[in-house]
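Attaching the record inline, Q. Sequence:
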Amino acid sequence: MKRIISTIALSMALAAPVFAQSYAVTNGRVVTNTEAGIIDSGTVLLRDGTIVGVGSNVTIPPGTTVIDAHGGWITPGIFVPWADLGLIEVQLEGSTVDANANESPFSVALDVADGFNPASTHIPPNRIAGITRAAIFPSTGWNIFAGRGGLADTSGGADSLFETGSFVVADLSESGASTAGGSRSAAWTYLDAAFADARGYPGRFSGDHEGDALSRYDAAALVPVVRGRVPLVMYLDRAADIRRALRFQAENAPLQLIIVGGAEAWMVTDELVAANVPVLIDPIRNLPASFDRIGSTLENAQRLNDAGVTVAYTTQSADGYFNARLLTQHAGNAVAHGVPWDAAFRAITLTPAEIYGVGDRFGALASGYVGDVVVWDGDPLETMSAPTAVLVNGEPTSMTTRETELRDRYINITDDTPFAYRR
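Structure, as predicted:
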């Protein structure tokens, strides 16, 4: 019996290298997002989807597939903290929109996991732009709650939505006030009542009784938020509304709060730092497009960073279902307006991962982290730079999309028709 067990163990040991998949991304400027900083000429070694070595003197084992950066940049994959990738194909075609449900009787219980499409045509163009992870957001419908969001990778695999029920989204801005009945007091009263329903679940719903604001199904979905296990993400721009949200958090401990928008967040930096509340902002939202955003400024990112507020960047001024790929450009604009390069890059990689509680797995190049690695032909925050290779979960992904195929098909076509017939 012992001989049989020994034989099996030996067979497994001999078979292991055959099934192990190793890659070495080398000869590039490695941005680690760790205390190691930036390694001018380094290597990232990956095995079976996980980073196992980072440095300037990493030994590359025999049989490892080498990806040469040719002197470019090697970075963690970009982590988008706000997007609706995989939920919308054509915004104006309702049958392809699963981001919201205006006619559903449910709100908090709505879950992006039920509508997310990993095969969406918009995912590959974002992936080849360096996007490897994204927080997938639902949109609000008939009340202030949009539903539950999740975290996804951009591999296109069936299991790419790797975490569900990660947060609940609510709109307490001017649009939320309109939805709730026409004023901010109506929106906050509704939120208070919803929290009371969730705190009283399930006892409050005995028999045929429903909650003051929520059905029993929505109340059950809000329970993890009320108990502090899942963050509540609030859309807020106005400084006064942010202060109200911080007061709501203090009154409803152990509530975790994340703010999206934050156009006037620079006015309340001390309060945000004291409450340890992160803010997701778009660094190029600088126009006073509404009375909520009169204090908008291109210096918002710099002021928040200098004050020590936890900040991640979004592309809120663009369409999140296909233009998340502009995130590096938005981060570059933050640098142009005073944010240090390393802080801006962190705000689109490691910081979003930390905000959503997965910063020990994603957003950095260090041993034990998941192998999301991007090779760039130049500074990733420069508009003219682009990825030359993208690895998701330690596997190289295709750099071909429908757009690149159309480009290659038509780039060299010569139009010989008379000028009057050309379009």
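The two ends are 79 Å apart (CA to CA). The CA atoms of residues 171 and 235 lie 5 Å apart.

More tomorrow.
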